[in-house]
Amino acid sequence: MALAVLRLVFDRSLLTFDAARHRHLYDGKQLIGVTTALGMISKGDAITQWAVNQSLEFLTNAFAQEGEYAPEEIQAFLLQAKYAWRAKRDEAADIGTQAHNWIESYLKGENPDLIWPKHPAVRKSCEAAVKWTEAHHWQTIEIEKQVYHPKLGYAGILDWWVFIDGVPSIPDWKTSKAIYSTHRYQTAAYLKAVELETREYIRNRWVLRIDKSTGEFEDVKLQRGTLADDWRCFKAALALYKREKQLKEEK
């Protein structure tokens, strides 16, 4: 089904991605990343509490051995505890990246014999993803597609553009601890950019979350009726990001 909208044509050869700096560019000009704009939306106290928990866990392990500790040892422990969250964050990010890359390879048909990752958490994630795909009929249109909205000046890379059970959809794989509202807005931004460029009608969005620790799977199907509100929220976050950036530059 084609959309009866004016298509904003752009030269795709001018749209590039600097992987080292994680920057989207059009004709050399840096664009606003979808996730960068959504960084303006707070996830509440969950992230703060998680960081505190990492420090407490580190100190609990550090002082598990009985005995006296010199002041300099205590100071060293406290300093390490201060930044314990970074190590945990990087470890989680690495697991998420490995799982994401394996799933991408699987969807492309590059791993027909299902050679599983060795890391137990990565394997759990990949097994859950395969189990979900086996429960649905799917036909890939594009994987890892870089999208660009020339009017609003944002860009991003969507995970998957696909027919799921015969319905054109844009799913996004997540290895986060929960499904957040920003995931809805992220997929709305991807969908709008794809439709603007291709004039193809996309009915559904999906958020596919895998718990890295347990391998449990959570899927949320976002039907077309939810798009308008989610798109409005993304544009609000984008406008806030642009205004904050402008104010910083004025200083």
Can you describe this structure in just a few lines?
The chain is of the alpha+beta class and 251 residues long.
Describe this structure in words.
This protein is α+β, with helices and mostly antiparallel strands and 251 residues long. It has a single domain, classed as Trna Endonuclease, Chain: A, domain 1 (3-Layer(aba) Sandwich). Helices cover 46% and strands 22% of the residues. It has 7 helices and 9 strands; from the N terminus they run E-E-E-E-H-H-H-H-H-E-E-E-H-E-E-H. It has helices at residues 34-38, 46-62, 71-82, 84-107, 120-134, 181-198, 227-250; strands at 15-18, 23-26, 29-30, 32-33, 138-149, 154-164, 167-174, 204-210, 217-222. The strands form 2 sheets. Strands 4, 5, 6, 7, 8 and 9 form a 6-stranded mixed β-sheet that branches. A 3-stranded antiparallel β-sheet has the order 1-2-3, with no helix packed on it. Helix 2 runs antiparallel to helix 3, helix 4 packs parallel to helix 5 (120-134) and helix 6 (181-198) crosses helix 7. The radius of gyration is 21 Å and the shape is globular. The relative contact order is 0.14.
List the helices and strands and how they pair.
Layout: E1 15-18, E2 23-26, E3 29-30, E4 32-33, H1 34-38, H2 46-62, H3 71-82, H4 84-107, H5 120-134, E5 138-149, E6 154-164, E7 167-174, H6 181-198, E8 204-210, E9 217-222, H7 227-250
Parallel strand pairs: 4-6, 7-8
Antiparallel strand pairs: 1-2, 2-3, 5-6, 6-7, 8-9
Helix pairs in contact: 2-3, 2-4, 4-5, 6-7
The whole-angstrom Rg is 21 Å
- Count of folded domains: 1
- Helix amount: 40-55%
Would you identify the CATH architecture? 3-Layer(aba) Sandwich
Topology order in helix (H) and strand (E) letters = EEEEHHHHHEEEHEEH
